[in-house]
Task: inverse folding
């Protein structure tokens, strides 16, 4: 040691350092075991600086090992927690795995079973991006077309959203928020419903959680890896559902706002690069999207008002448990306000600072819904099914807000128990109630199929519901709507559908088909019992409903047809999209029309 610097346990002796020994406390055992005995020479050597340095190193290693053991124990606990909630997510949805298809699910399956090269053609007529349909195409090839098989694909997306929520919460806020996000996402009403729906919505929620977290981390920490991950995930969102365009706009705006607030030119360039990369990745699909925007879209979607905005968002997130989730949100908001007040001394103006991670994670889903609401005033695009891109990631922000709430566990438990309770009816209802919870079409057609001859004429009064009928009955029958005979009943051409229906005559299209039936030939008529809600635009509902009535009248008013069987909604069934079916037999020649 240099002269003039005395280390612990040393004294100066003429410019050199000599080891010294401090006397032990009274009564302390000496090296020989006798109380207060002076240290022996070998013992004195342990006070050597090198020896003491090794002791310090050993203590630090032991401390690090203890911390790693504690961390490993915490990680294991989190792994058990996430696994448990994944199991809960499966249990809550397992009974609805085999529920019957309704119209949109059957359309998705009908598109996916076609050759891969023809998917862009059918999707142009449908109005959707391709990623989910490509995945479903291969999935059906491996596991078949049953509702349980295709619902399993969506269930996987919903279950994977649980560890994704933990990862996002841990990366953004810490361990407790990660655990809270896990519980909230595992039990949320949106995933409870769409986990067993043959549509892209559970995967949309999964990608949105990961994208939001990756984008926020990229903005906060930078690094090409996070920007590349955010770009890849955003591209996936865009190819799953077109609400991804709203999310991309919001992320770009927030990123540029942060760059301007922080005067960070590098961040601004990164955000611009991220945006252009996403647009470039989506560019190959732009011609299809342009056609869909001009010709298909969602003509049945309403222009939302404030009541629809609030109702659809809350119903998507929590269903009947919305008061319980409100408690958790209120606790998180109150905690955030308290933190803000504590950071600002009374009567003093605090210089403006960069928004917190919690503020950004709250703004991303909130502004995405706001942009969708505004866009819905100009184009028919609003639907609660698309809300998963925002409401599910919002649970990560709620978990982050709860982190410092005074009674955070109580607020979390109220929300989780409330949302879990919304799934209980499906766990205890009668089998027929669960099976027909979306549509009773497959159920009643299974009862009529034994009476139906091969080659029978099957007519759907609703031109958009034929895929559900065709999937339930299968091949071997002739299918027709008010548009006439269908060569491919598994798909619906939505291109300018209301306009095309206005120029259609059900009598001219269906009359010749009925006239060509031999005596004894069969006609199965499937009728929708509900034709949309009060919010459905009349420009769409009017022509569809009118042609449905016209098609029904063509069949029921034909004197040569005799009704031999009819089935409507079965007992204990309460489907969202109910249908009824009647079976007719031709008993004589068709009269003049």
Result:
């Amino acid at each position: 040691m240099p002269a003039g610097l005395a280390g612990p346990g040393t004294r100066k002796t003429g410019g050199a350092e000599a080891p010294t020994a401090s006397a032990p406390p009274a009564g302390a055992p000496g090296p020989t075991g006798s109380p207060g005995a002076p240290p022996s020479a070998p013992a004195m050597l342990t006070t050597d600086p090198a020896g003491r340095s090794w002791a310090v190193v050993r203590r630090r290693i032991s401390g690090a090992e203890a911390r790693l053991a504690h961390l490993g124990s915490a990680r294991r606990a989190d792994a058990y927690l996430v696994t448990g909630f994944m199991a809960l997510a499966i249990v809550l949805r397992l009974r609805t795995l085999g529920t019957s298809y309704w119209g949109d699910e059957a359309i998705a399956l009908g598109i996916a079973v076609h050759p891969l090269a023809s998917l862009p053609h059918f999707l142009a007529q449908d109005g959707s991006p391709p990623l989910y349909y490509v995945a479903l195409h291969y999935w059906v090839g491996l596991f078949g077309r049953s509702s349980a098989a295709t619902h399993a694909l969506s269930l996987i997306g919903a279950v994977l959203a649980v560890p994704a929520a933990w990862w996002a919460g841990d990366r953004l806020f810490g361990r407790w928020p990660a655990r809270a996000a896990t519980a909230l996402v595992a039990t949320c009403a949106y995933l409870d419903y769409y986990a067993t729906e043959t549509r892209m919505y559970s995967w949309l929620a999964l990608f949105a959680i990961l994208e939001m977290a990756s984008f926020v981390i990229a903005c906060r920490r930078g690094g090409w890896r996070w920007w590349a991950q955010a770009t890849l995930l955003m591209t996936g969102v865009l190819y799953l559902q077109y609400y991804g365009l709203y999310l991309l706009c919001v992320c770009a705006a927030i990123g540029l706002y942060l760059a301007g607030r922080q005067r960070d030119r590098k961040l601004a360039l990164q955000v611009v690069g991220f945006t252009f990369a996403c647009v470039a990745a989506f560019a190959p699909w732009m011609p299809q999207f342009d056609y869909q925007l001009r010709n298909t879209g969602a003509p049945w979607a309403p222009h939302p008002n404030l009541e629809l905005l609030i109702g659809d968002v809350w119903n998507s997130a929590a269903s009947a448990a919305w008061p319980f989730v409100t408690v958790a949100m209120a606790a998180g908001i109150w905690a955030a306000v308290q933190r803000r007040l504590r950071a600002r001394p009374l009567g003093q103006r605090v210089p403006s600072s960069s928004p917190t991670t919690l503020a950004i994670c709250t703004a991303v889903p909130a502004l995405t819904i706001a942009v969708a609401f505004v866009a819905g005033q100009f184009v028919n695009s609003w639907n609660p099914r698309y809300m998963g891109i925002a409401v599910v990631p919002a649970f990560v922000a709620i978990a982050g807000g709860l982190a410092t709430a005074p009674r955070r566990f109580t607020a979390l438990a109220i929300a989780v128990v409330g949302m879990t309770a919304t799934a209980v009816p499906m766990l205890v209802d009668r089998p027929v109630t669960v099976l027909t919870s979306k549509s009773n079409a497959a159920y009643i057609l299974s009862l009529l199929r034994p009476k139906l001859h091969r080659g029978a004429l099957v007519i759907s009064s609703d031109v958009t519901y034929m895929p559900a009928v065709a999937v339930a009955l299968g091949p071997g029958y002739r299918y027709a709507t008010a548009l006439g005979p269908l060569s491919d009943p598994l798909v619906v051409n939505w291109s300018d559908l209301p306009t095309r229906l206005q120029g259609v005559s059900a009598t001219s299209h269906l009359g010749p088909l009925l006239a060509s039936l031999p005596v004894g030939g069969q006609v199965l008529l499937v009728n929708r019992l509900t034709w949309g809600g009060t919010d459905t635009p009349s420009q769409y509902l009017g022509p569809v409903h009118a042609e449905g009535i016209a098609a029904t009248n063509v069949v029921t008013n034909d004197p040569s047809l005799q009704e031999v069987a009819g089935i409507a909604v079965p007992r204990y069934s309460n489907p969202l999209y109910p249908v009824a079916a009647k079976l007719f037999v031709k008993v004589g020649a068709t009269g003049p029309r």
The beta strands are 10-13, 16-19, 457-460, 478-481, 484-485, 522-528, 561-567, 579-586. Residues 1-46, 346-353 have pLDDT under 50 and may be disordered. The CA atoms of residues 60 and 66 lie 10 Å apart. Residues 49-94 form the longest helix (46 residues).
